[in-house]
Write a sequence for this structure.
């Protein structure tokens, strides 16, 4: 299908508008991280700062705020990294066998179980907030990174199982039969064939869990009280909770905290796109 | 015998996690909503302090006009943000489905808002809307749309819509990416036949594209609707439900009642009422997906 020059031009106009919409706020954010306090608090509109500076970055890393009471940024990043990675590993360890069972075995209750997996994905987290808070508070397990891992793993598990069973179904049955002939079955087949063959699906699924966990705020803010356990979204929200907000720090910290998920998303682009369409095409 | 039980062995770890962290707490929340648990969670240790009140918490919640206002605002947020995300997402997807130089790069860049942390998004827009030196505030004044003293987050109507814009910025990309993936799997020959028959672009969109895309559209809409209905983070950071409750939504009300005021039972009741609405969305979603899995 060939297009006229005018049509071609309109497409580029449209694409430019999409890019402006998508990148505009981000560009403002990045410029602001390099702006001096005077530029940030100026009462006139200027998109380009009069004075470029790295002071915001220095402040974020040294943990120095105007009032000297800001959560240590690197500790929060480390906490978020730890919680995200461990949560993803737990989800895979529990989700892979479950997804495999739904994809391959016939058993009583399979359909109702699989539907309920979808149903559990829909449970609003806020309903679980109060009972989980009460349960963990009574067990003295508040302010503990592992508590967040348990909660996040459970919240992400339904989606993980759903996606994995869908990916596992696409592995040809004949393969399993020939492996069986060679004496490989059960867990051996799962580890030696299913996991390597569905690596792209496992990567996509892991990416979703990593991003969702890095992003979570509500439970993190309620279940943590000291800097030993606070995650990066909580730390950033506290940059903003002071009477006098230091915009420079808040925005610079936020920008740095958004880099790991953005880089991961760009890097794993191919897998994420296929995962998104797997989620909506085949369910 | 062992063979029969094998699948359950594979499923057991997932059953334990889902039961322990989702199913049991769900039942526990229902229990809390039937007693009077205020401030001290240690009251649960002593059954004589449970003070069963039956449906009293639910009655009180439903009798409070502020609950209905909050429900209305939650619906407003959900309908307007998901509506805009769908309209923009569809436009973006159709555009990115055309061939042009740099299409792969543009599609990759669309992932950025999707991956952008919600809290950072809220912080970014709160700064853009700042009444003294926010870029959007100053831009509006410069264009003569407002006078210099206008505080975007200072009145209910503009605050709610400003939050919606921030939400739309982040989530349009998700809708666009799902629709784009679906568009790219559509059969080209149907289009070529329609072109031969001289069907206009407009007609092709409504007669071919939209019907073929409808399953993916429904999935994207239902997922976004459920998430928008649960909106919390962005409200917490940008307005804290203010000004004067003008951006109060159900999740934030639940949080406030339980975590800020210590009224755990009231909070549990609100969250259960909220779940009824989510359950309706969820039911629609499962129906769509399960029909197609066959």
């Amino acid at each position: 299908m060939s297009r006229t020059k005018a049509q071609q031009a309109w497409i580029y106009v449209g694409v430019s508008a999409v890019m402006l919409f998508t990148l505009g706020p981000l560009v403002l954010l990045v410029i602001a991280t390099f702006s001096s306090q005077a530029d940030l608090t100026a009462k006139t509109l200027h998109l380009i700062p009069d004075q470029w500076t790295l002071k915001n970055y220095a402040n974020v890393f040294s943990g120095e705020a105007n009032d000297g009471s800001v959560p240590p940024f690197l500790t929060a990043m480390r906490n978020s990294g730890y919680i995200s990675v461990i949560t993803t590993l737990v989800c895979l360890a529990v989700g892979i066998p479950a997804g495999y069972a739904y994809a391959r075995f016939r058993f009583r209750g399979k359909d109702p179980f699989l539907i309920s997996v979808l149903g559990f994905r829909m449970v609003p987290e806020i309903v679980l907030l109060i009972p989980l808070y009460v349960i963990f508070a009574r067990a003295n397990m508040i302010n503990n990174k592992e508590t967040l891992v348990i909660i996040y793993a459970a919240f992400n598990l339904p989606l993980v199982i759903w996606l994995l069973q869908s990916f596992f179904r696409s592995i040809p049955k004949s393969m399993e039969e020939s492996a069986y002939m060679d004496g490989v079955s059960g867990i051996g087949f799962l580890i030696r064939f299913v996991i390597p063959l569905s690596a792209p699906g496992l990567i996509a699924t892991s990416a979703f869990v990593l991003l969702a966990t890095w992003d979570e705020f509500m439970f993190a803010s309620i279940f943590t009280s000291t800097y030993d356990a606070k995650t990066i979204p909580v730390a950033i929200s506290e940059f903003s909770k002071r009477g006098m907000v230091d915009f420079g720090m808040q925005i610079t910290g936020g920008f740095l905290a958004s880099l790991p998920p953005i880089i991961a998303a760009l890097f794993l682009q191919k897998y994420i796109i296929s995962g998104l369409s797997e989620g909506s095409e085949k369910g | 015998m062992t063979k029969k039980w094998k699948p359950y062995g594979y499923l057991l770890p997932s059953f334990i996690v889902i039961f322990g962290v989702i199913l049991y707490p769900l039942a526990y929340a229902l229990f809390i909503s039937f007693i009077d648990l205020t401030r001290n969670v240690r009251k649960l240790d002593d059954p004589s302090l449970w003070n069963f009140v039956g449906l009293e918490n639910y009655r009180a919640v439903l009798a409070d006009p502020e609950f209905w206002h909050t429900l209305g605002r939650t619906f407003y947020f959900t309908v307007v943000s998901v509506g805009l995300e769908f309209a923009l997402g569809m436009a973006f997807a159709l555009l990115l489905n055309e061939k042009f130089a740099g299409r792969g790069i543009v599609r990759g860049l669309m992932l950025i808002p999707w991956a952008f942390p919600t809290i950072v998004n809220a912080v970014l827009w709160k700064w853009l809307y700042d009444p003294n030196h926010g870029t959007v505030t100053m831009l509006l004044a410069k264009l003569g749309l407002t006078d210099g003293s206008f505080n975007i987050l200072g009145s209910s109507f503009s605050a709610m819509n400003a939050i919606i814009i921030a939400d739309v910025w982040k989530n349009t990309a998700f809708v666009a990416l799902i629709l784009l993936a679906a568009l790219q799997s559509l059969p080209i020959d149907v289009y070529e036949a329609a072109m031969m028959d001289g069907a206009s672009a407009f007609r092709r969109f409504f007669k071919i594209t939209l019907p073929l895309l409808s399953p993916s559209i429904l999935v994207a809409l239902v997922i976004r609707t459920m998430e928008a209905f649960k909106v919390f983070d962005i409200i917490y950071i940008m307005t804290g439900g203010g000004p004067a409750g003008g951006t109060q939504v159900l999740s934030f009300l639940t949080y406030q009642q339980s975590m800020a005021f210590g009224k755990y039972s009231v909070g549990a009741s609100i969250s259960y009422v909220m779940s009824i609405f989510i359950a309706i969305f969820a039911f629609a979603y499962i129906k769509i997906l399960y029909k197609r899995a066959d």
